[in-house]
Design a protein that fits this description.
mainly beta; 7-stranded mixed sheet; globular; 4-stranded antiparallel sheet
Length: 116
């Protein structure tokens, strides 16, 4: 049974940092790409960052240079380091993995609130 459990969200002021973690289980973590998405109130869920099994990364333009995605295959965990946070980064952040057959799995989400 695939499980993704996010942690690390919270309330911070603009300019501060947070690190999100997503602990994965129920599948072979090391061979899967992993992603972070976010959804702000009244908006669609959007891709924030993705990391392939080989460690290649890709970011939304809005977070490039501020956010860093990484993974630790020994711990079955993917991270999102968020620096220089802005009010517009306020959202629920979700961990995601997608399989070649199209199946998508999501965590329960973790709230990030940035006060300006």
């Amino acid at each position: 049974q695939v499980q993704l459990v996010e942690s690390g969200g919270g309330l911070v002021q603009a300019g501060e940092s947070l690190r999100l973690s997503c602990a994965a289980s129920g599948f072979i973590f090391s061979i899967n790409a992993m992603g972070w998405y976010r959804q702000a109130p009244g908006k669609q869920r959007e891709l924030v960052a993705v990391i392939t099994r080989g460690g290649e990364t890709n970011y939304a333009d809005s977070v490039k240079g501020r956010f860093t995605i990484s993974r630790d295959n020994a711990k079955n965990t993917v991270y999102l380091q968020m620096n220089s946070l802005k009010a517009e980064d306020t959202a629920v952040y979700y961990c995601n993995t997608e399989w070649p057959n199209g199946a998508k799995y999501w965590g329960q989400g973790t709230q990030v609130t940035v006060s300006s």
